[in-house]
Fold this sequence. Notes:
Elements: H1 18-21, E1 29-34, E2 38-39, E3 43-44, E4 48-57, E5 63-72, E6 80-84, H2 96-102, H3 108-115, E7 120-124, H4 136-153, E8 165-170, H5 172-187, E9 193-199, H6 205-212, H7 218-231, H8 237-240, H9 243-252, H10 267-270, H11 289-297, E10 309-314, H12 322-334, E11 340-345, H13 352-355, H14 357-368, H15 377-385
Parallel strand pairs: 6-7, 6-8, 8-9, 9-10, 10-11
Antiparallel strand pairs: 1-4, 2-3, 4-5, 5-7
Helix pairs in contact: 4-5, 6-7, 12-15
Amino acid sequence: MAPFSEPSDDAFHAQPVPAELADMAPGTVLRYRPISPEAYYFFGVNARAWQVAYVTADGNGKPQVDIATLLVPDDPKPRLLSYQVAYDALTRRCAPSYEILSGSMVEHMLMDKALRRGWVVVIPDYEGPESQFLAGRNSGQGVLDAIRATQNFLPDNWVNTDTPVALWGYSGGAFASLWAAEIAADYAPTIPLVGVAAGGPPADLASSAEAVNGGIFAGMYFAAVVGLSRAYDSIDTEKLMNEDGREMLKDVGESCIGQELAWVKDPVLSYAFDDMQDYTTVDNFLAVPAVQKVTAENRLGQQGFAAPLFYYQAFFDQVTPRRDAKTLAATYCAAGVPAVRFSYALGEHISATLTHASAAVDYLAARFAGEPPPNECAELMQMLAAPD
C-alpha cells in the first residue's frame, strides 16, 4: 500500500495547471492508489480501499482536482452510497482522504452501517483543494464528480452507470449532499439518484449565523466566513475586519470543527461565546450587501430534485432553528421533491448525528430496494403554518 503524508506534502494531492484540465470530462480519474484505511487510530475499516484524484470544478467553473476515497466490502452489492463527511474544515489536514489514512475518521461508525449491508461507499473531499467550507456549488460538484469517478474507476460488476446511487451526510455533510441533489439534474443528469438522507443541515446560512453568534457554536460562524471568503472575492475581509478580526480569521483558517482526533484547533472550542461584532469594522456583518449576496447564493432549497428525501433535525439544535428546518423541508415539497420524510431527532446538534443514523440507512436501503417512499409533504405544509 502507498505510504502517506499530509496533503500539502503529498504529490497525490498536487494540482495541475487548470489549462491541463480544461478538456477533461468531469469525473475523469487522473491517478489512483490502493490504501490501508484506518478508523479511530485502533480500528480498521472492513473494506478494500482506493483513493482517486479526479477532475471537477469549483463554483466559478475553474477546473480543479479533488480526492475521493472508495470503500468496497468483500461481497459488494449493486448499490453506491456517496457519504459526505462533516469535516467542516479550513485545512486539508481534516480532509476525509487524510483522516482515513491517519486514523482520525470519526464518522467511520456511520459509513460502516452501509458497508455491512454490502454497499460500495465513496467519500469525497468535496470542499476541494482550498477547503472552501460551505461553498455550495463547489461542494455539490465535488460530490457528483466523485460519483462519476467511482463509476469510471471501479469494475462494472461492482459499480457502473446503472448502479443506483444514494447521498447521505450530517450537518456540513448534509449541506454538501443537498447541494449535490439540487444541481444533479443540470450538472450530472445521468447519475441514477434514488434517495437522499440529510441530517441537521444549515438550512439558511445567514439565519444559522445569527443563531450561533455569541453562543457556544459561534466559531462555526467565523469558520464559515473564512470558507466563503475563499470562494468569493467579493467578501473583502481586509476591509470588513478590524485588527482583532484579521488575526481571528488567520487563526481560524488553520482549524476544523469537531475534528479533535486530527490534532488541529477547533474554532468552536476557541471562540465559544464570542460576538462577530467585536471583530468587524461594521455594525452588522450579515447586513453587508456582498455578504447578503453570498449567503443567498448558498442557501439550500433553491430548487428541487427527483429523488425522495429523508430530512432529520435535532429538536434542540443549536445551529439551525427548528423553524428554518421546517421551512426548508416544506420548500423542497413545493419545489417538486417527489416525497419528503421529516423527523425530529432527540437531543442537540452533536448527539443527533448518532440517534437517527440507523433510520437514515434503513430509509436508503428501502429506496435501493425500490419500495415506495413515505411522503409527509401534506403534513409538512400544515406543520409549517403551526407554531413551534
